[in-house]
Fold this protein.
Amino acid sequence: MRKFTAARPPETPADSPVSKTRILVVDDSRLQRRILAGSLVRWGYEVVEAASGEKALQLCVENLPDLILSDWMMPGMTGLEFCRALRDLPGEQFAYFILLTSKKEKEEVAVGLHSGADDFLSKPVDNAELRARITAGERIINTQRQLSRSNQMIRDTLAELQGLYDSLDKDLLEAKKLQQSLLPERHRVFRGGTLSLLLRSSGHVGGDLVGFFEAGPRKLGLFGIDVSGHGISSALMTARLAGYLSASSPGQNVALTPDGEGGFVARPPAQAIQSINELVLNEMETEHYFTLMLAIVDLDSGLVQIAQAGHPHPVVRRKNGDIEQFGTGGFPVGLISGVSYQQFDIQMRAGDRLLILSDGFTECPDQTGQMLGEDGLEDIIASLGDMHDEAFLSGLMWKLSEYAGATDFSDDLSGIMFQLNDPALS
């Protein structure tokens, strides 16, 4: 069945009487029109007449009928040409088209069907057959109308969903800006070291977070967090966790303790993570858990105190190019109360670089599904040579994209690179 748009009255309300089927009769013979119209009116139909195909087409554009009875052979525009022109009009409205003809050859009938006619009646028209064909046409018309209403409902629903999606997308973009604001600085130079940070979500927002804070005289606190899952709920949790390790509000930072002189000094990282574990279990009603790496760096001596809670092992690239991985693994935070965490030390020397990376790196798959792993990560770090600071992290991302064969990643990526320098030369 073919469809086209034309002006027609608005839909009849469900609680109103059903309107009559409107039939357009097209024939250059006034007598034939009168005979057909008389029968149709007696049967309760609303009838409109046209003496030519051109006039009929104009009437259809102005007010589309439900059903059309058209003679095939007419001067000017024939019934077949009228049918073709009708079907060529754009849109989705439908009118059932019956051609009246004395032609009986199969080839002629096929031409009519190909031109858009829905049915045929042989002339002279038998009233019983005419009424039966119209009744069959009305069933198809009703089915078509129901389909059109269903399609309109689908379009309306899709338009509403698109509006909701656009609104949500706008909110997520704002959420992304807010989450990125948790990391106001991506690079910082200290006397004795340089720090670069990386935070890249797999979607608008993610569950990774990295940061730093002053941890007393010549001490620097570093942390990397990876919340389970992705998306909004994980991002909300990272925002809450950022308050536990706040750089701007040291009094709320669980990794710090008052020094008795109005300042703050670092707590042992293992104790701080244990306290965060209990806070999360007692204060947050969530099914999320997270991995955490917390480090305190002495900018003068190069001693790094670290506690690991399920986060990937920290990596040190020595000045001479050697690569070492450290750590005890540890249990993720937010699963079980009373968990204790182990602490270990890393001694850095001038020129060494410390990397704290999320598992989005080691668990990044290539196009066959093979994960990069810790050995693959070491190979990438070694290949970056003497690149440092932000250039090093950019190179790390480029190499990871090369391995994955894509620039979009299925997991959030976050990282910290700290390079120890000689304080006397800083």
Q: What stands out?
A: The two ends are 81 Å apart (CA to CA). Residues 127-181 form the longest helix (55 residues).
